[in-house]
Amino acid sequence: MLLLLPLLLAFDNPAGRGVDLALKGNCADAMPLLDQSMRDPEASRDTKRTVATAGVRCSMLLNRQNDAMSFIGWLKDAYPGDPEILALSARMFSDLSDRNAQELLKTAPDSPLVVEMNAENFEKHGETGKAVAEYRILLQRVPDKPGIHYRIGGLLLDRPAEAKKEFEAELKINPDNAGAEYYLGDIARQDSDAPAAISHFKKATDIYPAFGEAWTSLGRALLDSGKAADAVTALETAAKLVPDNPTVHLALATAYQRTGRKEDATREFALQKSAAEKLNRTNTTLRKNVAGAQ
């Protein structure tokens, strides 16, 4: 990624010398020159890109994590959305995560934080059973730790009865967990318990008013319960929060129809069609990109 290296090395300047030393692995001597170059007000943005990229490499080799964060921070601010910078950032943060995890294991092997880290690692790799087991061990050590029952519930969604117990346990610890209320509402909906579903979805929106999915589910539950007028209010809120969701527009159109608002219904059906077409185009492009990458 050091695309400007020939240009830099053509001049006897701190930037060229610093990058040259970095490429040769002499990072201890390179770092002062790289830092000096980043502070140079006359250095071009492209020059600083090369310097900062070398700085990230050397900072990681020297385990100077704060310096690495500084270099990558400049790069991301200067080149937002740049694929090379994003890739460099992803590798750097992954490496930093591994290093700090290893340090935690060495310094506090019996800490509950280690158990939580192990559980998260199992979860990340799709090993649900092991993740749940680790989270349960964590709860034995820290019974009132917020968020853990919620995570277990999320891993057990294919077993609704067990997931329900976990979400209920989470709310006893943290009554303001909107996600737990939302999932309890969804489980109630699956059980055809409309009053309970409406109650949980409503609580989720009370806790987190910007929760678009909760407003959508509340509106649909009200609609299914024959409360079209109440559904309109919830679904109008949802449409403002998640305007690209075709499901919202379809439900809102239906609610408008049932309350006699034909023009509004026609508009929402059109928006539903447009949103669905846009979503289909996005999915098609994504599939083509994935296929091309493979």
Explain how this protein is built.
The chain has 294 residues and is mostly helical. The protein folds into three domains: 5-106, Serine Threonine Protein Phosphatase 5, Tetratricopeptide repeat, CATH 1.25.40; 108-175, Alpha Horseshoe (Serine Threonine Protein Phosphatase 5, Tetratricopeptide repeat); 194-294, Tetratricopeptide repeat domain (Serine Threonine Protein Phosphatase 5, Tetratricopeptide repeat, Alpha Horseshoe). The protein is built from 16 helices and no strands. α13 (212-224) packs antiparallel against α14. Mean pLDDT is 90; it is low at 1-11.
Straight-line N-to-C gap: 23 Å
Hey, roughly how much beta strand do the residues contain? Answer: under 5%
Q: pLDDT below 50 for ≥5 consecutive residues: which ranges?
A: 1-11
Rg calc: 26 Å
Number of strands: 0
Q: H/E order of the elements?
A: HHHHHHHHHHHHHHHH
Number of helices: 16
Reading off the top of the CATH hierarchy, the class of the largest domain is best stated as Mainly Alpha
Major sheet size, sense and barrel closure: none
Please tell me the CATH architecture of the largest domain by its name: Alpha Horseshoe
Estimate the helix proportion, in percent. Answer: over 70%
Mean pLDDT: 90
Give the count of structural domains.
Answer: 3
